[in-house]
Amino acid sequence: MSKKESNNSLLPWMTAILMVTGIAVLAAMYWNRNVTIQDVKVNDLEFTQYEDIRNAAAVPLGIKPDSLDLNEVIQRVEQLDYVRSVVPYIEPNGSLRLKVSEREPIALLMNGSGRMYVDAEGVRLPILDGKTQNVPLLYGYSTSTDDTLRSESFLQVRDFLMKAKIDGFGWTTISEVVFDETDGVVALSHENGVKLLFGRNNFEHKLENWKAFYAQVVKTKGIQSMQQVDLRFTNQVVTREI
């Protein structure tokens, strides 16, 4: 094939590409010139009310998309207590859709008369009317909202709680948690308030040991006489009885 013939064969493709590009440019110009924001839509949420999202977004209806600073919208909405992240998208019909991801409590902080939820990132969350969460009680941390929990002790507790939640059995059999400098993560069982020592790290394996111990010993012997179950060691479970 000659160079001239090759060029001639490319012309239809180039023409098509130019036409599509031109149509896209014209469509964008029309959209920017004529489309305005007429509505704010939000996905279903558990903790945050739609009106709170809309008020925080503070988007004037009728504004043109190119006059709207979406970064500012994101920042305003993310100031709400339970909002973790926001992804905005303007639909062709002019609706502003906000995809909101919420924070989920993993424990209820107990400090004197203070009560606050906390999520996996250490962010404290207020208790909302009608939104009680079935999570373990966590002692030893402030309920002040001034900063985020980042201490090594909290990270240990956080890792334990996340593993327990995934495990399921650990989550349903534990009622209270605290961090001890000597024993590491310490929990109380729902049943009879038995002290469970989980130590530091490797919580997935230790929770499996707790599940196996419960099935093999507690189910047959009962838990009434047990005072402490030490799960800190890899290949053994040590118990202390009354």
The H-and-E topology, N to C, reads as HEHHEEEEEEHHEEEHEE
The shape is elongated
Main beta-sheet annotation:
9 strands, mixed
Q: Enumerate how many helices there are, as a single number.
A: 6
Could you report the average pLDDT, rounded to the nearest whole number? Answer: 88
Give start-end ranges of low-pLDDT stretches: 22-27
Radius of gyration from CA coordinates: 28 Å
Strand order, largest beta sheet:
6-5-4-7-8-9-10-11-12
Range of strand content: 25-35%
Question: Gap between N and C termini, in Å?
Answer: 95 Å
Q: Tell me roughly what share of residues is in helical segments.
A: 25-40%
The tally of beta strands, per DSSP, is 12
**Helix vs. strand class:** alpha/beta
